[in-house]
Amino acid sequence: MQRVLVVEDSKVVQQVLRHLTAQYLDVAIDFAWSLAECATYVEKYDYTLALVDLTLPDAPHGEVAKYTLSKKIPTVVLTSKIDEYKRQQMLELGVVDYVIKDNRDSYHYAVKLVAQLLRNQGCKALVADDSLLSRSLMKQMLEKQLFDVTDAHDGQQALEILKANPDIKLLMTDYAMPSMDGFELVKAVRNFRGRDDLAIIGLSGAGKHGLSARFIKYGANDFLTKPFMNEEFHCRVLQTMEQLSLISDIKESAHRDHLTGLHNRRYFYQYAEKLLKSKNQKNTLALLDIDFFKNINDTLGHEGGDQALKQVGSLIRTTFSKFTVARVGGEEFAIILPEIELERGREYFEAFRKKLASYDFSISDKSIKITTSIGLADFQDTSLTQAMRVADKALYEAKNQGRNCVV
């Protein structure tokens, strides 16, 4: 479980940070006022990350950052002022980054930085460079940002690693490499990994004009010139990964039903089409319809109807947590059970039908009972349209048989 420690002695700043962390971070957060309180927390909990003030009453010379780093906690520093000596001191200490507290936006930046670092944890990155020293340096810097890092000594090896590991999310590649240079690697990678799925940052030595534009035209998300400053490296990587995260959030939002949080009809059809390509695989398709839903709307209002949809959707999601569940219509839900034949699927849904019928739903402070009619269909070697037609016909038959049954 991820956990963040914030150390700040200013009441005003800590209040701002409490507000922002509650808004942007969905993890356990502890707030300390001093080095002594920080040490108490560190002895008690394991921390993923620390956000600390450089100057505290009992630690005026950055001792708190030294302490958290000594405990192997990746650390972001907050400071009210910075000079070259302090900057070098912090970089030598090994902090991930520093943020200057000169306006309200800086606190937004600090918290969003922490949020992205937390998203980086466990995220896989690949460094491709024929220089062992350069690879080692970038690997070390990425590990500070909580990435799980692999390296490759040339473009060909990097390509093979990427093909074998589709969960790698960041590639940093040098231009000049034997067997396959950075341009060729980027072009080859973009044949099977898009910009919104894999972030690529190109690198090259100073003095080679036009390389940045060519890298980006071939498919890189960004470019760095060697030698680079630590801050520039961290900023470029973090901003690139933040863009990837935002695209992922947008895509996820586009695939979700806003009311129930389940997948929507568009995602369901895309997922089902993929299953159709898997021959020799029997699947069960189910359509569920809430019985007498109009009565719920008429007696409890549309707000009550929305509550009913949310609660039924939640029960479906928890019961079928291993499967793809979607809201495909007003009060209609669809579920696919991959590699489960129809008779076994019937057992699943008969058990769920009984569970739902006995459940006490609380709608607008009233306890009500809800039932569902369920239509099932085989889903193998057929078109999705045909499978949906069969399931819909079965659902219609369930309604004709008096509802609250599986056909």
TrEMBL record:
Its EC number is 2.7.7.65. InterPro entries: CheY-like_superfamily, Diguanylate_Cyclase, GGDEF_dom, Nucleotide_cyclase, Rev_trsase/Diguanyl_cyclase, Sig_transdc_resp-reg_receiver. SUPFAM superfamilies: CheY-like, Nucleotide cyclase. GO terms for molecular function: diguanylate cyclase activity. It comes from the Bacteria. GO terms for biological process: cell adhesion involved in single-species biofilm formation; negative regulation of bacterial-type flagellum-dependent cell motility; phosphorelay signal transduction system. It catalyses: 2 GTP = 3',3'-c-di-GMP + 2 diphosphate. Keywords: Nucleotidyltransferase, Phosphoprotein, Transferase. This is diguanylate cyclase. It comes from Pseudoalteromonas distincta.
